[in-house]
Every structure is written in C-alpha cells, then in structure tokens.
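User: Could you go from structure to sequence for me? I need the amino acid at each position, not a summary. Structure tokens:
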C-alpha cells in the first residue's frame, strides 16, 4: 500500500488506524484523524477516504467503513505505530 499512501502518509495512516481501532463512521474517523495530524478540511478528508475505497483498501456499506482485508486490518492495528507496512 506504500505507493498509495506516501503522498499523505500521516493522514492515511491515521485513517487506517482509526478504522482498525473500530471507528466506522466518517465523523468518528475524521475526529480521530484530526486528533493525530491536525485540522483537515471535509473536502480533503473525503478525498482521502475515496482513494482508500478506490484502491480496495477500505469498503463502505450504509455509511460504515471497514477494511476489505482482515490481515491488513490486523497489521495496521498491531504494527502500524511507525513501522512501514
């Protein structure tokens, strides 16, 4: 996933960590992300989420975001604290 997240690595990793931690709604994921990386516009945040959906990293169903791949979710949860995945 490195080529996908590199341009905004801190923001993408915060989003992925939020979802791995069990946060599932746009609002909760955004709050978590902003707490870690600072303010981000709604427009920019939505575009980051859309890109994760486009590349099949996350899926969205009825307003709920989840990982497509449970192995990736576990890796983010357990090892995503600074190590490159």
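Assistant: Here is the amino acid at each position, in order:
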């Amino acid at each position: 996933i490195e080529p996908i997240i590199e341009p905004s690595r801190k923001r993408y990793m915060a989003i992925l960590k939020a979802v791995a931690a069990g946060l599932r709604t746009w609002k909760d994921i955004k709050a978590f992300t902003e707490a870690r990386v600072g303010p981000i516009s709604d427009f920019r945040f939505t575009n980051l989420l859309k890109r994760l959906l486009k590349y099949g990293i996350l899926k969205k169903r009825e307003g709920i975001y989840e990982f497509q791949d449970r192995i990736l979710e576990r890796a983010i949860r357990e090892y995503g604290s600074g190590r490159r995945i």
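One structural detail worth keeping in mind: Strands lie at 58-61, 64-67.
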